[in-house]
Amino acid sequence: MNRCPTYSRIRSLLLAACLASASLAAQAQVQAAVQPQVLPALEDLPPDAQRIPPISAKAKYGVLRVVAPPDVLLNDKAARLSPGSRIRGTNNLMIMSASLVGQDLKVLYTLEPTGMVHEVWILTAREIIVHAPPKPLPVAY
User: Fold this and answer.
1) d(CA 66, CA 99)
2) What share of the chain is helix, strand, coil (3-state, %, to 5)?
């Protein structure tokens, strides 16, 4: 027995709203997948929060891909995370390496004296523009 006829109407309205929002989200994903990813201009980006502790001055730019922790690819070369390695996200919080498996991340990193990757900072869009090495000029024919 349904004692509250308004409950069934509210439930059907909520279901319709959820379906509509899901279809809009799916359309946005399709449009985003079709359009190429373009980095905005540096002045168009909002300022980043200050990193505390700051990124080391000795840090080098690279592309990191976590294969199977602690094994990583750093600039397409095999490397390994040190036992005490720290990975900081764009919000400066620590991230576990297992949550980054299979992603190509633009990072700044430092190495231990043994050659293992010790500290990693995942870069924001603004930091990528600032820290990325310049692209080589095309060769003249």
Assistant:
1) 9
2) 30, 30, 40
Cα 18 to Cα 12: distance, rounded to the nearest angstrom: 10
Are the beta carbons of 95 and 119 closer than 8 angstroms?
Answer: no
Q: Quick check: helix, strand or coil at residue 109?
A: strand
CA dihedral of 106, 109, 111, 117, whole degrees rounded to 10: -50
- HSE-up (13 A, CA, CB side) for residue 27: 6
Confidence (pTM): 0.65
- The pLDDT value recorded for residue 71 is 96
**Strand, coil or helix: 52:** coil
Comparing 65 with 38, the larger pLDDT belongs to 65
- Which residue has tokens 């059907």? 12
pLDDT tens digit string along 55-81?
A: 889 999 999 999 999 999 999 999 999
- Give the Cα separation of 95 and 129 in Å (integer): 22
